[in-house]
Structure formats: structure tokens, C-alpha cells
Design brief:
Elements lengths: L1 H17 L1 H12 L9 H17 L8 E3 L7 H16 L4 E6 L2 H16 L1 H6 L5 E7 L2 E4 L4 E6 L11 E5 L10 H14 L11 E5 L13 E2 L1
Parallel strand pairs: 1-7, 2-5, 2-6, 6-7, 6-8
Antiparallel strand pairs: 3-4, 4-5
Helix pairs in contact: 1-2, 2-4, 3-4, 4-5
Length: 226
């Protein structure tokens, strides 16, 4: 039976590595208690993120910055900010991420939910190479044993000393904040002057801005905007 279990696990690992959507379905219950409804946009979004990750794995120049602008309640944070970085680690555990939001508390909440997946017994069984380092494991900054890192910050903070292969910015401003020129300027400055300098490789870094509430942000450099 042990041999059968090993073969079964290897098949699952291969399936999850090859399909981000399959990964989302497999670990959905770790993050969300409600039963999933997989609207057509979810596998489409997973495929778009897969394209970004393939270039990062190969350390090739990015084709574009990915902007994901969809309504609230359509699982954009669950897919892009919580599950995507974890899936990237099972394809390349050396990747480093900087993730940000309009507040540090929200950014940390996303990171903690990602960590819940990494600590899930099914995940640790299938992907031991993504085990978290015991001396580098806190809510806003954790690393795996292969050098991969997730650093969480906020738009008005500066990730000094941190560099990443991928940037993910989820809700750079609140729904009300988008009406404020001051807060819009803060978002633009964070993307163009702060985050743009925090790259492992300026040519290959991918960036995302999650749920851009208004098209106020100039897309420059390499960032994923969801």
C-alpha cells in the first residue's frame, strides 16, 4: 500500500504543479469555508497567472505587467494574493515575493492565509521542499528552506532591503480612498518610486495589481496589478 500511496502522491503533485486551477480547487477549503462556485473567469485568471510564472521561473524578460481589475467578491484576493504565491513555490521554491495593500493589516491577513496552506498537512506531505524556516516565520515575513520568501508591506511603507522576483499589490487604495488625490498620489509613488526599486531583476520581475479600484495608477516597471 505504501508504494501505491507514493505513486498517488506523485500523480497529485504533478497535476497541481502543471495547473494552478487544479491547485486552487485542491486547497480551496483551507482558505474559504463556503462551497466554491467556479465561474468562467477563475480558470481564465489562473491561466493568465501561469503565463507570468513561467517567465519568472525561466528568468526571462517579462512580457507585460498584469492588471486584474474585477469587482469585489469575485475571489481575486483568494486566487492572486493568497493562493498564487504558494503555487509559485511548488513550481520554484526559490522565488521571492513582495506583496502589498493599502494597509499592513490586510497585507498580513493575506500572507497568513497563504501560510495556512503551506502548513496544511496535505501540502507538507506533497511539497516538503516548501517547508518554512523555523527562525524566519512570522506573519509579515517568512521564508522556506530553499530561499523563497514572502514579505508583506503597505503602500505607505518602504520595504527597505527587500528584493523580489514578483510583486503583488492588492487594493492599493480603499473604495473611498480612490476619490482622494493625496491617496492616489501615494499609490502612484509607491508603485513608481518605491516598489520599482525592489526587484531581483528589473527585466524579468513580474508585478500584479489586484482589484484596481480605478484606473488612476500608471502601469510602469514590472508589477502585477490585481
Amino acid at each position: 500500500m505504501e508504494g501505491v500511496d507514493l505513486i498517488h502522491n506523485e500523480l497529485i503533485k504533478e497535476q497541481l504543479r502543471n495547473s494552478f486551477f487544479e491547485f486552487v480547487k485542491y486547497f480551496w477549503d483551507v482558505v474559504v469555508t463556503e462551497d466554491p462556485v467556479y465561474n468562467w473567469h477563475i480558470p481564465y485568471l489562473c491561466e493568465e497567472l501561469e503565463k507570468v510564472n513561467k517567465l519568472v521561473i525561466a528568468r526571462k524578460p517579462k512580457a507585460y505587467d498584469l492588471i486584474i481589475n474585477i469587482p469585489p467578491g469575485t475571489t481575486k484576493s483568494t486566487i492572486c494574493t493568497i493562493m498564487y504565491p504558494v503555487w509559485c513555490w511548488i513550481t520554484d521554491p526559490t522565488q521571492r515575493f513582495i506583496t502589498a495593500s493599502h494597509s499592513l493589516s490586510l497585507s498580513r491577513e493575506h500572507a497568513v492565509k497563504s501560510r495556512d496552506i503551506i502548513r496544511d498537512h496535505r501540502f507538507t506531505t506533497l511539497f516538503p521542499e516548501c517547508e518554512l524556516k523555523k527562525d524566519k516565520d512570522n506573519k509579515s515575513n517568512y521564508e522556506n528552506i530553499n530561499g523563497g520568501q514572502r514579505f508583506s508591506t503597505a503602500v505607505k511603507s518602504s520595504p527597505i532591503g527587500m528584493h523580489a522576483h514578483q510583486h503583488i499589490v492588492d487594493d492599493p487604495v480603499t473604495a473611498k480612498g480612490v476619490l482622494s488625490k493625496l491617496l492616489r498620489d501615494d499609490g502612484n509613488e509607491f508603485m513608481t518610486q518605491t516598489l520599482s526599486t525592489r526587484k531581483v531583476d528589473k527585466k524579468s520581475l513580474a508585478s500584479s495589481l489586484v482589484n484596481l479600484l480605478n484606473t488612476f495608477l500608471a502601469v510602469t516597471g514590472s508589477s502585477t496589478i490585481c
